[in-house]
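Let us work through a complete example step by step.
Step 1: write down the sequence.
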Amino acid sequence: MNRKKVAAIFARLKSLNPTPTTELEYRTPFELLVAVILSAQATDKSVNLATRTLFKHASTPQAIFKLGVAGLSEYIKTIGLYNSKAKNVIEMCRILLEQHGGEVPQEREALEALPGVGRKTANVILNTAFGQPTIAVDTHIFRVANRTGLAPGKDVVEVERKLDKTTPDAFKLNAHHWLILHGRYTCIARAPKCADCVILDLCEFRQKNLPNPKPVATTVRKIVPAPMSPTPRSKGRQPMAKTARAGAKRGRGR
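Step 2: predict the structure and record it as tokens.
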């Protein structure tokens, strides 16, 4: 896909939502870090329901670390894989307190060294909490990038690198949010809503999910063939069948 079309795609996504942001609820970089760790294989809605109560009682590394794994699990038990996530969050809090003065680091290497934090989570924190123009690639963005032809790739790292290379600087800060929201609500996995897509004419997906046009009504006339007129007989000759019968009668009379 050429750069002109890439820019046009982001311009249209921006026109729908000029200032996008994450749907996770948070007030500090630490709360966002906890929420993103909990959101792995879970919906933002389920995470928000759990963290609304959790952050009222514990919203700092010190406070959550004091809860321990068992105490934290009680707050997040409605989220999938909550036991392993509780262990990661508690260990993450310990490292923040011991190595970073209780603050969330702003370097990728330091973030990825934390339990439960991979490249995608690190990119989300760097972008959303600290305003760095990183592009975190999740399943939604991976699908949109490949389906539309925006940045096709075999894995999330390849897609991320292509997006980082082709996305114009003017759109890079919010590119992650525009693409994830587009994939979450319009370019969905099954039956994408192509008819409602703002980038329909720019998308290079060949099998677009569009309603079939209504068939044009046609009137079919039934043609009835006209009856054939009998062929007139020759006066001087008899039909073959009758001639044969007449000959048979003369033979019997001899």
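Step 3: interpret the result. The chain has two domains: 3-19+135-196, 29-129.
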